[in-house]
Amino acid sequence: MENVRVLIIGSGPAGYTAAIYTSRANLQPVLYEGIEPGGQLTTTTEVENFPGYPEGIDGPQMMADIRKQAQRFGAELRSGIITKVDLSSRPFHVIVDGSKEIVAESLIIATGASAKYLGLPSETKFRGQGVSACATCDGFFYRKKDVAVVGGGDTACEEATYLASLCRKVYLIVRKPFLRASKAMQERVFNTPNIEVLFEHNTAEVLGDESGVTGALLHKTDGSERKIEISGFFLAIGHHPNTELFAGQLELDAEGYIKVEGGSSRTSVEGVFAAGDVKDPHYRQAITAAGSGCIAALDCERFLLR
Ligand code: NDP
Q: Whose CA is nearest to atom 34 of ligand 1?
């Protein structure tokens, strides 16, 4: 059994930033990188909206840089997956990879959220080559091109209108005969001339070649088929926060996001802090995640010094 002062779970911008701050505060943090070291940003190409990179930077490179910065101050970064946590008493008991036991005085949860995908093999094949789940991150690369967005909620409508300001044409692929989004968002979509809403359509196949996505094959609920020519295929069918480990132990909202007190990172259990997308259903940006990692580190430091 190993004792640690600060255990950080998750390795996106939130987790690594929390590691930078807590290691600089001499709290000797231990961070487990989890299933996807570097988090969602490792699945994007270029990041152009993170301040400090005037020429933009590759998502994986940026995460490698932030990781190196955390190591510079002595954070111990480990590969491994947290398989169980017991938050019923402090210090907290945590199991890594099903066997190793750690006792942690404090915990920073930065396990992120995962975009939902349709689950088509062709969609997986072209991920990062035209298939994206983040219009704000990748929309810019499709300027003056035709793209499609899948989904009928607020995110899909927001992404479709954002993309419509950059792209020549946006198809919004909606499986139902109506949009689930708020009336205001729906009106925005219907009033944008270069958005075509395809109600009652499902994607059967993402089409492409060595250059990336070239189209999509759609099935309508009346049995008809339609092929559209597109360069970008954006998923906006929701995200799910990675909070399964904490269900029943921490207060979560209806969608499973960790609830925090006001603008802080404090969760319903004293000594447990949350940062990044795991507690943020709204903004979901690298910069907001990094900022919340800093907040969690400062909250954690104050808690330990108290
Ligand atoms: P939602 O769960 O609201 O919507 C998901 C959409 O994707 C639905 O239209 C759903 O269809 C569709 N969908 C789900 N699975 C599939 C599938 N397998 N194939 C095709 N379509 C699918 O998620 P959002 O991300 O849009 O929103 C999450 C929350 O965040 C909501 O509460 C929303 O209001 C909020 N939000 C608010 C914003 C704002 O106020 N500006 C902006 C963005 C989000 P169906 O309707 O048939 O289930």
A: 154
